[in-house]
Design goal:
The complex is a heterodimer of chains A (270) and B (308). Chain A contains six helices and 13 strands. Chain A is an alpha+beta fold and 270 residues long. Chain B has 308 residues and is mainly alpha-helical. In chain B, the strands form two sheets. In chain B, strands 1-2 form a two-stranded antiparallel ribbon. In chain B, strands 3-4 form a two-stranded antiparallel ribbon. The chains are: A alpha+beta (270), B mainly alpha (308). Strand 5 of chain A pairs antiparallel with strand 5 of chain B.
């Protein structure tokens, strides 16, 4: 490969990068306070691979990190806050409302939300509304009320009641949480947050975002991810059930017939 | 402690609770000579298993209990193979329709409602009829009269139907249509309710087909093996609602409980057994009915599109 060729590829890549930056829908200017020192937040997750096995009853993961003041010009001033957002894989959820028909409670027509997180947890060092303005939170998509439900949130009252019912029911299942004092600072720069994943967590890839706020402005953010997967016999059964359902059904019958035969041989008296 | 995660139901249940549930239902089914699905499936639903998974897994459990039941009946020569074959043919057709119907109803969010309503109608009717019959028998016995269950040689509308077949074991020469129709209904119920359908097949064989009582239970339980096996296979293939791990726990409990149930049942008189069973059937029906008519604690419900 010639030098000129390499050069043109590099130029092309730079143009591409420039184009991508130009299309960036989130201009950083209103979020990060201009002209202030730049602290950095670093964070990691205690468990990056979560295996659902037969003894799985839910798990607590730890998000820990530190605020790096080394680049800051005035490290002593200001209030620091951390918000950690854990977002599970998106899935569709059907919400239904029961109505009374001839004395019996019947599911009415449902509303389908096609692209909502199956798990969503917001942990913060203080109530999030006290940390940053509503506009900032909305822009960053932090908080249950800022969940993108794939439709205009300023819909009809009926639509809003469906949305709030969905969020409430997900909260009851411990799949959606907002924890005001979920992030605890240890000293000035270290912090930790525990997230409880309940037994009914969806499987897939989870995104973990940690935001550092200083005096209400976003100062730094970092991202990580974790995987929740079925493992061991649970994974074997689940995969078989969905990839080879006919064989799986036959296996179920075989187990039942075998157990029935065993029972008869063990207990027969004639 | 003893919590076990179910791979398809995607919830964690107590191992001992599920084993004892299987054993309790097995005990009752052994005692009354019924499959016990009509008790097991509602109990599973009450313990938090999604209805569609409860129905499919219940059918799988019945395969196991009916195998040991059939073997015992087979050795006594109580299985009419000809009649069984016709009932199975109808049952398989009914099962296919039932599983497809369930698949459709799940899609529109009405599966739970229709399953519950069907339970109320069938259990309520059968329970009331059985209670009525057994109480009458008990009253007449107290009055000192003898009771004959079946008047042989009597003719009814069944004998006017075409496609007559000979059923040597049952000493019958009747049309194949009524047993086929009974099979279809039983298959439909097996797919829909996760039951064997013995509670409807046995009275139908006695009162409609007029089969001799000694082959009724054996033939019914023989048919149930095949129909519930087909239902299990169809639910696994079309609806992905079979939880093998849950079925395994229930079968282990059920097979053991069933053997003790048979012994307990031999100590009770027939009409007493039927009255007890009728009361239990009615109890389950009322329990489900209450859930349907009582104002739910939460009017809204959510279903993940991938789950049960």
């Amino acid at each position: 490969m010639g030098v000129s060729q390499l050069g043109s590829i590099l130029l092309f890549l730079m143009l591409l990068a420039g184009a991508a930056r130009a299309q960036d829908p989130l201009p950083p200017a209103p979020v990060i306070k201009p002209g202030t020192s730049q602290e950095k937040v670093q964070a990691d997750i205690s468990t990056r691979q979560i295996a659902i096995e037969s003894n799985f009853t839910g798990i607590e993961i730890l998000i820990f990190g530190s605020v790096d003041f080394s680049d800051a010009r005035m490290p002593s001033s200001g209030t620091y806050d951390v918000i950690a957002v854990v977002r599970g894989p998106n899935d569709s959820i059907v919400v239904r409302k029961k109505t009374r028909v001839a004395g019996v409670w019947v599911n009415g027509p449902g509303k389908t939300y096609t692209d909502v997180p199956g798990f969503y947890a917001v942990l913060s060092s203080r109530p999030i509304r006290a940390i940053a303005s509503d506009d900032t939170l909305r822009e960053l998509g932090i908080g249950l009320s800022e969940l993108d439900l794939g439709r205009d949130t300023a819909g009809s009252p009926q639509e809003q009641s469906f949305e709030s019912a969905m969020i409430r029911l997900m909260e009851e299942r411990n799949l959606y949480t907002e924890h005001d004092s979920g992030v605890v600072f240890i000293g000035r720069s270290l912090f930790r947050a525990t997230v409880a994943l309940p037994v009914n967590v969806p499987t897939g890839r989870y995104l973990v975002e940690v935001y550092l706020f200083r005096d209400g402005y976003l100062a730094s953010k970092t991202k990580g991810s974790l995987e929740v997967n079925k493992a061991g016999i649970e994974a074997t059964i689940y995969n078989l059930a969905f990839s080879k359902p006919f064989l799986y059904g036959l296996l179920g019958i075989a187990i039942a017939v075998f157990a029935g035969l065993m029972g008869w041989f063990a207990f027969r008296r004639d | 402690m003893f919590q076990i995660y179910l791979p398809i139901a995607e919830i964690s249940v107590n191992l001992l609770v599920m084993l004892s549930l299987g054993a309790a239902v097995g005990f009752l089914s052994g005692m009354f000579g019924v499959g016990g699905g009509f008790l097991l499936t509602p109990f599973l639903m009450l313990s938090g298993i999604p209805p569609a998974i409860a129905v499919a897994t219940g059918a799988n459990q019945i395969v196991g209990t009916s195998v040991s039941g059939t073997l015992a009946q087979w050795r006594r020569g109580n299985v009419d193979l000809h009649m069984g074959a016709i009932l199975i043919a109808g049952g398989v057709a009914g099962a296919l329709v039932g599983v497809l119907l369930l698949k459709y109803l799940r899609g529109v969010g009405q599966a739970g409602l229709i399953i519950s309503l069907t339970y109320v109608v069938f259990l309520g009717t059968i329970g009331a009829l059985m209670l009525w019959e057994s109480v009458n028998v008990m009253r007449r016995q107290r009055a000192g009269k003898t009771v004959s269950a079946r008047k042989s040689g009597q003719h009814n509308w069944i004998h006017g139907l075409p496609f007559k077949m000979r059923f040597p074991r049952s000493r019958l020469y009747i049309s194949a249509i009524p047993p086929l129709a009974i099979g279809v209904l039983v298959g439909l119920l097996a797919a829909f309710l996760g039951v064997g359908g013995g509670f409807i097949m046995v009275p139908a064989m006695i009162y409609i087909l007029r089969m001799p009582t000694n082959v009724v239970v054996g033939t019914s339980i023989f048919q149930i093996i095949f129909v519930t096996a087909v239902v299990t296979l169809l639910q696994a293939t079309l609806n992905h609602t079979l939880d093998i791990l849950l079925a395994f726990l229930l079968i282990i409990g059920g097979v053991i409980g069933g053997q003790f149930g048979v012994r307990a049942g031999q100590k009770l008189r027939g009409e007493q057994l039927r009255a007890l069973l009728a009361l239990m059937v009615l109890g389950v029906a009322v329990r489900i009915l209450i859930d349907l008519v009582a104002r739910p604690a939460d009017l809204y419900s959510i279903i993940p599109a991938t789950g049960g």
